[in-house]
Specification:
globular, about 280 residues, single chain
């Protein structure tokens, strides 16, 4: 698994690329707008081409945290569709390999209604034929009314979308752990990846978020921790990210980092160490 990091896009995509290269990250994830604001950022055409050349890190985009396609509130739903569509257009222009999306919260309307609402929103957000970057639905930690805690819910969303060729998945290691998916042993990891393949199709998992957890197994809370400091443990993370079936996968760190300003080069190096340790464990037979 190639491991990179989420980096700031302050100053534009060219600046984000420099940050990624300085920390030795072959994969990078960015926001194209403030994660907690609706306003769309404007990018110069040349800036959108910052990652579009040989040797550049692989680019992924994360949609705004405000986007909630599962919401029963019509005004929030419409704003969410518009924001996601804007990010998808810009991501496609930048050659991004996917736009990571939190499926959202149904706000008491029920998971079934939430799935239907998300699918309807995706159909509208993906309507522009210029969009080539797929939406990557991210699994959730399971708090409150969130949709996407289970593999089955993620699969149900995609199956209800008309342009399902532009819908894939992003799996977060902390969210898996917090929502009760075990990968603490070789047997558990094999079982989990078999379930992922059966429900989602491993080939449709475009990205992994590689994060430790501040909370216990099954706690249903989204709380990331730095590698080596959380409840999951290096052994379990290594077994997952070093699994031979994920050798061609991409991963990004979304950890707080030493100064709570995001991951740094040492974090990327530590994650690479986990991949190598995991490969060695699986090679033992």
């Amino acid at each position: 698994m190639l491991i990179g990091a989420h980096v700031s896009s302050a100053g534009g995509l060219a600046a984000a690329r420099r940050r990624a290269e300085e920390m030795g990250a072959p994969v990078v994830q960015v926001f194209l707008r403030s994660p907690r604001a609706w306003a769309e950022r404007r990018f110069a055409p040349e800036d959108l081409r910052a990652f579009d050349e040989p040797g550049a890190p692989a680019l992924f985009v994360h949609a705004s945290y405000l986007v909630n396609l599962a919401s029963p509130d019509d005004e929030l739903f419409e704003r969410s569709v518009a924001a996601l569509a804007g990010d998808l257009v810009n991501a496609s222009r930048a050659g991004a390999r996917g736009v990571v999306l939190h499926p959202g919260s149904h706000r008491g309307s029920g998971a079934e209604a939430g799935v239907a609402r998300i699918a309807a929103g995706l159909d509208r957000a993906l309507a522009d034929p210029a969009i080539t970057s797929p939406v990557l639905l991210e699994n959730t930690a399971g708090a409150g009314d969130t949709v996407g805690r289970t593999l089955e819910e993620l699969a149900a969303i995609r199956s209800a979308v008309e342009r399902d060729d532009l819908v894939g998945y992003c799996l977060d290691t902390q969210h898996l752990f917090a929502s009760g998916y075990d990968y603490s042993t070789r047997e558990a990891t094999t079982s989990l990846l078999a379930a992922v393949d059966a429900e989602l199709g491993l080939e449709r998992v475009g990205l992994f978020h590689v994060n430790e957890s501040m909370v216990a197994f099954g706690a249903n809370r989204d709380r990331h921790a730095n590698l080596g400091t959380g409840s999951i443990g290096d052994e379990a993370l290594a077994l997952l990210v070093g699994h031979p079936g994920l050798a061609s996968a991409a991963g990004v760190l979304e950890v707080p980092g030493p100064a709570k300003q995001g991951p740094v080069a040492a974090d990327v190096a530590a994650a690479r160490g986990l991949v190598e340790a995991g490969r060695a464990r699986w090679a033992e037979g």
